[in-house]
């Protein structure tokens, strides 16, 4: 009898003759998921291959008891991998294979992460009807995101629906949507539209289709054009007795705990493998915040589809604000569970995915929490808190020299996505914190350390690296690992008094960083800002990049907001006037409520900034006037960063100092004002870095 290796080789040879069957890696995964031994599969597939040919030719398949166990797997392959030349299915597959590649549940269902059953086989799936754009409508520009390559989602991840029933997708496609109610829209989206996006990780979930409603479309579906009330419009919801909400409930659909607001998720509870969930975004309800999506809500539907389509292709299909999308991207790239085989039953069940944050929320250490957190209130903690925040520092005017005051300009430099750069290769804790007394400091262990850094001497013309306001510490305080390690880097001994450390660690944010970095760099390149430009060319390109393509400029703004918002969501505070201190608020139910990870990112970003400030002083003798988060203002003899940044004799930028460029962590010009203007603001107690751009930098960036 042939060995298992020989049988395995023969199976591969047999299947390789049929190019429409799954690729080798997928076949191996399907074999494993079905629990079929290699020997039995080799014997059976000789017959099942002929069954595929019979199926393609329209003949009935041979009946054999031996094939019963494999027939459902074959049907799944045939649906997922159609023969060459066959038209891909436009709608959701009506039946799922009985032997799925992965277990049905890859995570825990929550109010904001619904799953849903497969579409019943009895319901016929009618393909969506593409229709040409009307002559009066402006077509999407040529430079549009390409439709999804996955045959299950031939029309891309999303569509923008107007009042005439035209659903504008990516790549200029326009679908005819006959829905006249929200329920009909949901059913059309799932069964006929061909919308959706494949999962970003093999253990994750496919992205649910997104339908964006214009004001006209919302009214046509029975929704109010605007949500009015005394609260912020983004927090408003339709009342439970609204006719549309009643229609949704009557049709056996569900809404998440967030209700029917600007970003509404409509779903049915999972009963099989396929999810049945649709995301709605209502433009006239301020679903697209102007600060994160500048000018997008006023664009034509085709252009809105292009902007959101590029974002979905490069980042993730939007699921709410850019902050929510940033958090969802972390989970999509690090799914909490993976398929594992139960040794007792042999069944495939969800198990913990190493490197993820798991499925259960984790309470932080008391110093990592916020003052209103139940951990703090219940324990009566009074030992202080981490204060790892971004810089907001202004140099004392009395420390300005005469030479500095006579310089004509104040020039602001802004670091590209500084928090994203800090997330690169950042090791964070994955397990619960353990408390230690008088530990020996180890810069490789993420955690919170109680240590006295008041003895560390820093030039008064530079901010202290240990506090957000740049003042020198006055005694013991809690710091994240990177902050304490920087004190060691400066040559000082550190003796921790106490620490909360985590034994299990990992670079949790690495895939998040890599995907957002690629999105940022690629989008800048679309705007004419590429890596091969000289510094002078880079400054010129950045000056006009927003005018090159407003749609892509909006994508760039959304990517930057995704970075900042995603990091901020790791420590979301309670919202609403009814909240009382000590109560658990909804964000605490998320495994991604991790203030320690947020502190690690901000600590590393602030230390990186101080290291550059120190190197600049060493190389050029220049000291900053002010720092605000990732923006620094320097006195300058010219109106350009080229007038004061350090360059080698060869003309190359000096490493270690601020450098111009289009990648995260490098700098760009933030703004130029007169030195007199900057000094006047400093004397009034204002931060020049906040206003050097010509407004409020914090508000302009959507913080």
Descriptive account of the structure:
The chain is α+β, with helices and mostly antiparallel strands and 703 residues long. An 8-stranded mixed beta sheet has the order 1-4-3-2-5-8-7-6. Strands 11-19-20-12-21 form a 5-stranded antiparallel beta sheet. Helix 1 runs parallel beside helix 3 (38-56) and helix 9 packs across helix 16. 44% of the residues are buried.
Task: Please write out the topology.
Blueprint: H1 4-16, H2 24-34, H3 38-56, H4 68-80, E1 129-130, E2 158-161, E3 166-168, E4 174-176, H5 182-191, E5 210-213, H6 215-220, H7 243-250, E6 254-255, E7 263-267, E8 277-282, H8 301-314, H9 322-333, E9 337-341, E10 348-352, H10 374-379, E11 392-394, H11 402-406, E12 409-415, H12 418-423, E13 428-429, E14 433-437, E15 447-452, E16 476-480, H13 481-489, E17 498-502, E18 505-506, H14 510-526, H15 535-548, H16 550-569, H17 595-620, E19 626-628, E20 631-636, E21 667-674, H18 675-683, H19 688-691, H20 697-700
Parallel strand pairs: 2-5, 5-8
Antiparallel strand pairs: 1-4, 2-3, 3-4, 6-7, 7-8, 9-10, 11-19, 12-20, 12-21, 13-18, 14-17, 15-16, 15-17, 19-20
């Amino acid at each position: 009898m042939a060995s298992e290796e020989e049988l395995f080789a023969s199976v591969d040879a047999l299947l390789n003759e049929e190019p429409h069957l799954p690729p080798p890696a997928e076949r191996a995964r399907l074999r494993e998921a079905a629990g079929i031994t290699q020997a039995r599969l080799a014997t059976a597939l000789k017959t099942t291959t002929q069954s595929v040919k019979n199926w393609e030719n329209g003949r009935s398949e041979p009946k054999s008891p031996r094939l019963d166990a494999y027939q459902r797997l074959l049907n799944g392959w045939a649906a997922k991998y159609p023969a060459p030349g066959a038209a891909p299915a436009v709608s959701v597959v009506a039946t799922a294979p009985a032997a799925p590649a992965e277990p049905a549940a890859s995570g825990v269902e929550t109010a904001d992460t619904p799953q849903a059953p497969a579409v019943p086989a009895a319901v016929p799936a009618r393909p969506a009807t593409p229709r040409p754009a009307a002559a009066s409508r402006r077509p999407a520009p040529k430079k549009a995101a390409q439709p999804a390559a996955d045959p299950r989602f031939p029309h891309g991840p999303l569509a923008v629906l107007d009042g005439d029933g035209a659903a504008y997708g990516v790549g200029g496609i326009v679908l005819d949507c006959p829905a006249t109610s929200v329920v009909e829209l949901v059913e059309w989206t799932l069964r006929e539209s061909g919308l959706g996006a494949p999962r970003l990780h093999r253990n994750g979930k496919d992205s649910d289709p997104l339908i964006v409603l214009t004001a006209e479309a919302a009214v046509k579906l029975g929704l109010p054009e605007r949500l009015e009330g005394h609260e912020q419009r983004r927090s408003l919801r339709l009342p439970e007795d609204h006719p549309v909400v009643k229609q949704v409930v009557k049709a056996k659909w569900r809404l998440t705990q967030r209700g029917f607001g600007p970003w509404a998720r409509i779903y049915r509870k999972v009963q099989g493998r396929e999810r049945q969930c649709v995301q709605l975004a209502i433009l006239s309800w301020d679903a697209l915040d102007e600060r994160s999506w500048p000018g997008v809500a006023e664009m034509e539907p085709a252009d809105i589809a292009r902007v959101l389509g590029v974002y979905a292709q490069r980042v993730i299909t939007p699921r709410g604000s850019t902050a929510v999308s940033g958090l969802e991207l972390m989970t999509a790239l690090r799914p909490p569970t993976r398929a594992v085989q139960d040794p007792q039953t042999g069944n495939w069940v969800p198990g913990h995915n190493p490197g993820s944050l798991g499925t259960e929320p984790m309470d932080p250490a008391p110093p990592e929490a916020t003052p209103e957190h139940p951990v703090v209130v219940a324990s009566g903690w009074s030992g202080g808190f981490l204060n790892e925040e971004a810089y907001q520092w202004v140099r004392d005017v009395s420390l300005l020299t005469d030479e500095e005051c006579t310089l004509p300009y104040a020039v602001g430099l802004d670091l590209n996505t500084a928090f994203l750069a800090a997330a690169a290769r950042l090791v964070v804790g994955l397990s619960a914190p353990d408390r230690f007394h008088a530990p020996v400091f180890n810069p490789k262990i993420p955690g919170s350390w109680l240590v006295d850094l008041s003895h560390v001497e820093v030039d008064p013309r530079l901010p202290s690296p240990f506090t957000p306001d740049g003042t020198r510490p006055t005694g013991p305080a809690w710091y994240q690992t990177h902050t304490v390690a920087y004190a060691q880097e400066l040559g000082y001994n550190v003796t921790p008094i106490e620490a909360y450390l985590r034994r299990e660690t990992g670079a949790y944010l690495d895939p998040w960083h890599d995907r957002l970095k690629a999105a940022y760099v690629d989008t800048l390149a679309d705007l004419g800002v590429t890596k091969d430009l000289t510094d002078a060319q880079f400054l010129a390109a950045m000056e006009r990049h927003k005018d090159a393509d407003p749609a892509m400029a909006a994508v760039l703004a959304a990517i930057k907001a995704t970075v900042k918002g995603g990091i901020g969501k790791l420590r979301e505070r309670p919202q609403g006037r009814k909240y009382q201190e000590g109560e658990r608020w909804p964000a605490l139910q998320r495994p991604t409520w991790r203030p320690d990870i947020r502190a690690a990112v901000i600590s590393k970003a602030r230390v990186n900034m101080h290291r550059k400030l120190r190197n600049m002083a060493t190389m050029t003798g220049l000291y900053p006037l002010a720092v605000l988060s990732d923006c620094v203002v320097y006195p300058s003899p010219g109106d350009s960063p080229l007038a004061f940044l350090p360059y080698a004799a060869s003309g190359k930028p000096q490493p270690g100092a601020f450098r111009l460029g289009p990648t995260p962590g490098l700098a760009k010009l933030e703004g130029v004002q007169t030195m007199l203007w900057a000094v006047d603001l400093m004397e009034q107690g204002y931060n020049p870095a906040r206003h050097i751009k010509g407004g409020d930098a914090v508000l302009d960036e959507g913080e």
